[in-house]
Specification:
About 25% of the residues lie in helices and about 35% in strands. It is an alpha+beta fold. Strand 9 and strand 10 form a beta hairpin. It is globular and about 50 Å long.
Length: about 240
């Protein structure tokens, strides 16, 4: 496959989220070139990701991977991922590019987009907190009394759902222009399949609409797709992710 790589819905919002998160992580930055946009987070391993921006073919991806290897090495980052945007909306469809020199094929995430409808619900149990607390709540519940204050970065918001005085689900969001990007949605093991993820999502979407958002975008695994579709999200493309070896 050749030609120009598609800019997927929410891609600029995703890059804005990386820039916002870089403000709270030591040494972090987003480096953009003609070929890629790279999130460099020396102190936050999961965020070391780059998006291919130019021609969507094996040669372009291999050349970008070579440049990124040097960039991340200079920053002291050993593990990172290259995301290749695609307009394919089936998570199980074959890849357009089968090999990228120096990288190993990893997961695929589905890009989904929704137009925000009227009547979105707020939930009293959902509260703002810090990114660290929201991340913690997706791994294990912890006392709501221990929730930290939000970081105060413009456009960035972190959320937890509190049940029985414990934070049991978390997510964060970024408002970029009229789009709200929603990321890292998760529920603590043992608390899943109880509607908490839906309540959390409804509240985040309602808050985004109140602040002027007209659309919302996110990346979904296969497991999360039915929930997001029930909330009005539709597949718009995918990221085919390759990781450093």
């Amino acid at each position: 496959m050749s030609g120009t790589t598609p800019f997927l819905p929410g891609q600029e919002t995703l890059l804005a989220s990386w820039s916002a998160l870089a403000q709270i992580s030591p040494g972090a930055r987003v480096i953009r070139s003609a070929a890629t946009a790279a999130a460099v987070f020396p102190s936050w391993a999961p965020l070391n990701n780059a998006i291919l921006l130019n021609a969507h073919d094996a040669a372009a991806a291999t050349a970008a991977a070579s440049q990124l290897t040097s960039l991340y090495s200079d920053a002291g980052v050993d593990a990172w991922a290259l995301w290749m945007p695609s307009r394919v909306t089936d998570v199980d469809a074959p890849d357009g590019v089968r090999e990228v020199g120096g990288l190993k094929r990893d997961t695929t995430t589905l890009v989904m987009q929704a137009t925000l409808p009227p009547g979105l619900r707020h939930h009293d149990g959902v509260v703002r907190t810090s990114i660290a607390a929201a991340t913690h709540a997706t791994d294990e519940p912890f006392p709501a009394a221990d929730l930290a204050e939000p970081e105060g970065v413009p456009g960035l918001a972190a959320w937890v759902l509190v049940h029985d005085d414990a934070a049991v689900a978390g997510a964060w969001s970024v408002l970029h222009e009229r789009d709200c990007g929603i990321y890292a949605v998760g529920v603590s093991p043992g608390w899943r399949r109880r509607g908490f993820a839906r309540s959390l999502m409804e509240h985040v979407l309602a808050d985004a609409q109140r602040r002027g958002a007209r659309t919302a975008t996110l990346q979904s695994t296969r497991r999360g797709q039915p929930l997001y579709e029930s909330l009005g999200f539709e597949p718009a493309g995918r990221y085919e992710e390759w990781i450093s070896q």
